[in-house]
């Protein structure tokens, strides 16, 4: 159940990033555009699912070293661009080379934002886990002191 909750949380987060990126791109570069709402939301959901599938690049049987993580992060950025740009172009999210460059920049900006927020959440979780470990060790030390005394 925790894994499902974890991936649902990530799905909602990525979906939000895609929605915000698309909103700001339209607001800044094509404020008069009219998108069919149901089709637009459906395509954003599909873009989100495709984005989530690209996270498989981080799958590993063992813990990733810093170097391996950075290499996979670089490859993931390339993979996102290679998959999302043609799909978004096919759906009319961007039309010409300049639009494509802008859309690609938004994809990279969303990836950076993802990593910053993910880092913040991981940092918070790590701090909570470290606190639990400290408490447990302190309890063990107190327990040993009581048993020896």
TrEMBL record:
Keyword annotations of the record: Membrane, Transmembrane, Transmembrane helix
TM segment ranges: 12-31, 37-57, 69-89, 101-127
The protein's name: DUF3021 family protein
Organism in which the protein naturally occurs: Faecalibacterium wellingii
